[in-house]
């Protein structure tokens, strides 16, 4: 999939703005451990009160109690939301035989019938499910446009599921 860079800015007074730090996978892992509301202070430090034995080694390597600043939690949360909701219509992007991904200049949108199907949309992230499919399952796919994970097998999480 094409690489996208999302620049995030933050402000305490809505007048002076500064770029937030780029997200790392470590930030995402740490932020997943936290629950509850944001405090509204980018420098606020959350302490981990409950860490399982597996995480214990990773978080306590430097001998200090692990903390994560609200600023890092914010960019990690935005990254998680972006991963979950970023989608692209089938055919809007094409992949060349050499692996380059480009916008499909001849794409004019989905037909009314296609637009109503979940299988007509892909997650705009590195594929996971597609990589685990067998060759037989991939036989009917077009490798130039079916190179991302389809939404058709997504199961909504949360209330009512």
From TrEMBL:
Domain of life per record: Eukaryota
* Record flagged with keyword Cytoplasm: yes
InterPro entries found in the cross-reference section: RSP9
Keywords associated with the record: Cell projection, Cilium, Cilium biogenesis/degradation, Cytoplasm, Cytoskeleton, Flagellum, Signal
Q: Quick one: signal sequence residues? A: 1-17
Biological process according to GO = axoneme assembly; cilium movement involved in cell motility; motile cilium assembly
A GO cellular-component term linked to this record: kinocilium
What family is this?
Belongs to the flagellar radial spoke RSP9 family.
Full protein name = Radial spoke head protein 9 homolog
**Species the sequence originates in:** Merops nubicus (Northern carmine bee-eater)
- What is the phylogenetic placement of the source species in the record? Eukaryota, Metazoa, Chordata, Craniata, Vertebrata
